Amino acid sequence: MLPKQADIVVIGGGPAGSTAAAELAMKGIDVLLLDKQHHPRETVGESVLPSAWKYFDRLGVSDAIMKNFVRKAGGVVVWDDQISEIAFKDFGYTRPGMHVERDEFDDLLLRNAAAKGAQVCEGVRVESVTTGDAPEVIAIDEDGFRHTIACRQVIDCSGQAAVLGRQLGTRQLNPDFRFVALWGYFENSRYFSAGGIARDFAEIPQHPPLTFVTRLSGWGWSWHIPMKKVTSVGLVVPIEDYKRDLPQHASLDAYFLARCQATPNLRDLLANARMVNGGTRMIRDFSYSVDSLTGPGFIVAGDAAGFIDPIFSIGVVFALYAGHLAAWAAERIIAKPAQAATTRGIYETQLRGRAQLAHALALPGIEREASDAARTSFDYFSQAEKELTWSAASMTTRSDNVVRAGGASPAKLRRKDLAALTL
Predict the structure, then answer these.
(1) Computed from CA positions of residues 200, 220, 407, 375, in that sequence, does the dihedral angle turn out positive or negative?
(2) 154: which of 185, 219, 310, 390 lies 20 to 30 Å off by Cα?
(3) The CATH number, out of the four listed (3.40.50.1000, 1.10.274.10, 3.50.50.60, 2.160.10.10), of the domain defined by the range 8-45+103-173+290-355
(4) Which among 56, 54, 51 has a CA at the least distance from the CA of 15?
(5) What is the DSSP string of 189-210?
(6) In angstroms, what CA-CA distances link 97 with 85, 193, 202, 267, 368?
(7) pTM higher than 0.85 for the full model?
């Protein structure tokens, strides 16, 4: 039975929503998390950077994360004629990055939020939100009954559904990044380990994998992420290329596999692999922003606030950061209502700065005002995070954007250039 009221209602049980709900519950705040699906639910397999550990530590899930997912040592990128590698240990990180099955990962974070005291209700769809000084959430349960839930703040972490962005008409597609993302899962794929050495899937426990990224035509790129049982493989393709080439193939699976086979190195890793788990998934026009991140009675966080491009594995860390920041803002607004406008302003400045830094990493250029906001956000990074960001960007042709956002380049780029990959 859904309650009729709560201090804070969180919409969405992804990493941002579960983080916000757990942190609020740990502070004794009455928080209700609503998710339209039941967990575990499928979400594309993903790479997580080691900067995520500070959030895992806060949430009390670090041991479970380390135990349940594949540890990754770094990344290897083939971009035009350049082959380069980074290792997280070279930046002073003592814990690895991770390759995670997002269904299990998200479920772990959601159950943790419940264990910390949040009331979690799954299979509940939020129909609308009334904003203002007395917010209300209209939600529909699995039996079709409509519920009105009064609260003091709403945190929208509904991901690509962008509940408040769509309702308020503030969700805007990014005209500079019209792409299609396609992905699937493969059994028995080989992978790259340190030194760009290809190994059999069974060797993962002895030789941690690297996330493998290679450039496609234009600003397209591919990913290859070995997980516990399967490997997540994806392509980010300009929408014009997709529309032009898809009719030449019998199915979406045929198109996806043909593009994988046409991609050097990736085709070698997949030579003896088999696509499983239902074939090719696809999403188009996934890059967007939301104009209003806060307002009286609401905060928008995570992918509900906008999404650019998953390159450089920044998505999960961004979601964890956004959930943490949203929890701080919601708690402060409740505790100090007279300072609500100031709190909302701080939240928007911080979150937009992070988003515009992601924009700098993903696109050929950024606007001057975006660069100023991104630079402010970049100042809050640790030196290890700055050097990792600089080094990762230098592995592609996007490094100038990060220099513009960060204001200067580090004394040393901590990447290793490879003459060739060992296949």
Answers:
(1) negative
(2) 310
(3) 3.50.50.60
(4) 56
(5) --EEETTTEEE-GGGTTTS--E
(6) 14, 13, 19, 25, 32
(7) yes
Q: What is the pLDDT of residues 331-368, one digit of tens each?
A: 999 999 999 999 999 999 999 888 877 777 766 544 44
Reply yes or no on domain 47-100+178-286+382-423 having CATH 2.40.160.40.
Answer: no
pLDDT digits (tens, 9 = 90+) for 197-242: 999 999 999 999 999 999 997 778 999 999 999 999 999 998 999 9
Cβ of 306: how many Cβ atoms within 10 Å?
26
Asked if residues 128 and 135 have their Cβ atoms less than 8 Å apart, the reply is: no
Residue with tokens 């269904």: 103
Q: Quick one: pLDDT at residue 369?
A: 45
User: From CA 236, how far away is CA 253, in angstroms rounded?
Assistant: 15
Token pair belonging to 300: 């928008």
Q: Which residue has the tokens 């899930």?
A: 61
Place of tokens 């035509």: 217
Between 406 and 133, whose confidence is greater? Answer: 133
- When comparing pLDDT for 320 and 377, which is higher? 320
Alpha-carbon gap, residue 254 to 265, rounded angstroms: 19
